[in-house]
Specification:
With 177 residues, this protein is α/β, with parallel strands linked by helices. Helices cover 43% and strands 19% of the residues.
Amino acid sequence: MFEHYHYTDTEVSKLLKSIVILCDTREQSNAHITDWFDKHKIPYKTKALKCADYSFMIPANAALNIDRDMYFSAECAIERKHSLEELSGNFTKDRDRIEKEFAIYPGKLVLLVENASYKDVVLGNYSTQYSAQSFAGTLFSFWHRYDVPVIFIPDSEFSGRWIYSYFYYYLRNQLKG
């Protein structure tokens, strides 16, 4: 998206500071994330996203020759699951829906799983009937099939920071090209 432009370090800094996180309108139980954004003065807004739960945008900025808002929801997004129980339900009852969502997403999509670790998957430390072997197999199969990495955040207190950092460094790398 930025390959035809060369921004100075000052311009890159201004663009990075202007990131607005987009939270999907269907996203529930995310006060711990938006509270972190508020505490660190990270702007965010609720917007219907076709795929995933989080993405970002850059608002129009005449000083940087950006004449319209730039949305990255088709280039970079995060699908968040609050727990292994929620993800287990997606992999069993809602498998077709999540698989279609992963399959049609055109950009970089990552699966963020809160309040869990890979160890919890392997040991079956979750409250569903989904076997540990099937759970791990589906995680790796989806990762390879749809190029969707799985990131575990054992303490959801760090989710807001992780979401912001993921988008910040994605944009930084795009700008520095």
